[in-house]
Target: Cytochrome P450
Amino acid sequence: MEAEAAIPPLDTSDPALIPDPWPTFTTLRERDPFHWSKYGYWVVSRHEHVRDVLMNRKDFGTGDFAANLRLFYGPDFDVLANPAYRWLSEVFIMQDPPQHTRIRNLVVGSLTAKRVRAMEPRIREIAQALTDGFKARGSADLITEFAYKFPVMVICDLMGIDYEASEMADLIAAIPEAFTVFEARILSPEELALANRRILELEAFFQAQFENRLAHPRGDLLTSLARTGQEPGGLSVHEAITVTIGLFGAGFETTANIIGNGLHALHANPEQWARLVADPSGMASGACEEALRHQSSLIATYRTALADTSVCGHPVSAGQRVLTLIGAANRDPRKFADPDRFDIARNDADHLTFGGGIHFCVGAELARIEARVAFEHLARELPQMQVDTGGACWRENFLFRGLTGLEARWPAQA
Model:
């Protein structure tokens, strides 16, 4: 391994990382896989090491939330005085056992695989309705008109929320503005003020939803979450609201990125789009997994050392943070043959995009079904689609890789 001084310290705020992080990731992974960031944390980038950190629940966890944020903002920053950071600190994915275990188990008990799989016919109906809305036109922005709307409508359907309600457009817009608190950087005063306002609006909306479900139960996910509060150790209404905002946001933000990133990669590699078009039902699952691996909608995630330990033979002291570069690990040639090649026939789902260990994504099953259905449906409905991959607009967000726009055209139909 080359000396650390030979490698520029990773700067996650570098705008060059947004459209093309892969050369930087390759340099770190191959020349300095245990890397010290200028912000005061370790960076690991090889598949074996990233997986070891994510799976090691004994030595790594989320740690002290406020202390972790002060690495960026300084020792005097009052983290929990900000509603958006206070909300984030209470989301179970940012907590360690036993609180994490208790809440996650209750969420998984409501968001069962059976409930999710039973939705597939409805998910296909939603995909059809969306393409019916723009197919005859011969063009669409695949991000705003499909990749985002599709999972939003699915998660609304699952939760029993009326997608056509007047407040939904503002509610959906609130998610990315509130979720800036997930980013590994200092937010500007304006960004933080907006995130704080948006999270309070989201909390007020879901407070009303849960009050409604307790008074008028239905067969939806919100009713199921609300009913856990009637059992010993169940979710309080506040906990249910916190969880639901996370599920609602992740339920479409993450899936939208998987679909959008996958469509971009499929058309940047037109032979792969042709393979999907030739066999939509047979290749859609492979397209989903390869989009997750090759494009890594979750680029990185943090862990904190809970005790003195080591990573790839290097000591890590208790309290030190480790940034696991999932995007780099997903292209590690030690794990994946020809890793920079996008290949939907790879049939290797051993990527780390859904995380690992106790923090493995609770919505992975739903996201996979949605992405598979989306790729299959679009290949059948719009096989002659041409996508402007060069004009794609990437979101200015390091941790969550995704697009804000992706224009497509096809022969207009009468």
